[in-house]
Design a protein that fits this description.
alpha+beta; single chain
């Protein structure tokens, strides 16, 4: 078993860096490290902090927390009210710490819980297009499709860490640690 890399101190600013399967840049989120628990490592963003990708740069409107689990197969973000997107889970490959920075490969599929629509798997069209264009290996396709289905079911049942109590405790931590 590979030892986990050292973690920064709680409250340390950093950027969560995403890329696409072909190595191209994707989202980069300005955030702080909140700490870890049995589910993995947690990060947070406050309103006004940046999330950018090629062609798009936005200031976050509502606080959010993000979980990087040890599996590296997804990254879970929970948005605070009044955001209309309660949960957004990026299905990922190789999401992990690299050179002291959280990184991951965005694999297109997402599990989303939106106030207006409920819980669903999003971006299946992009998944189909990119799995052919980028040549995703069949075993990874099968595995991540199952991960998305499993996560959709867990979010529906609000199994921890997708429950309110887990999220609430990390939002409290974000509020205490985030620079004002």
């Amino acid at each position: 078993m590979t030892p986990s890399p050292p973690r920064p101190a709680s409250g340390t600013p950093l950027n969560f860096r995403w890329r696409k399967w072909n190595g191209g840049p994707h989202w980069e989120h300005e955030c702080i490290y909140l700490g870890s628990d049995r589910w993995g490592d947690w990060f947070g963003q406050q309103p006004g902090w940046r999330s950018a990708r090629p062609g798009r740069d936005v200031a976050v409107q509502h606080p959010n927390i993000t979980l990087l689990p040890p599996s590296g197969e997804f990254v879970y973000t929970r948005n605070a009210a009044p955001s209309r997107t309660v949960i957004y889970i990026d299905i990922a490959w190789d999401a992990r710490w690299q050179d002291g920075v959280p990184t991951g490969i965005d694999m297109d599929l997402d599990v989303v819980d939106r106030v207006e629509r409920g819980i669903y798997i999003d971006d299946r069209d992009e998944w189909e297009e990119h799995r052919v264009a980028y040549g995703y290996p069949p075993e990874i396709v099968a595995r991540l499709e199952q991960v998305a289905i499993d996560l959709e079911e867990q979010v529906t049942r609000r199994v921890p860490p997708f429950d309110d109590a887990t999220a609430d405790s990390w939002f409290v931590r974000l509020e205490a640690l985030a620079p004002q």
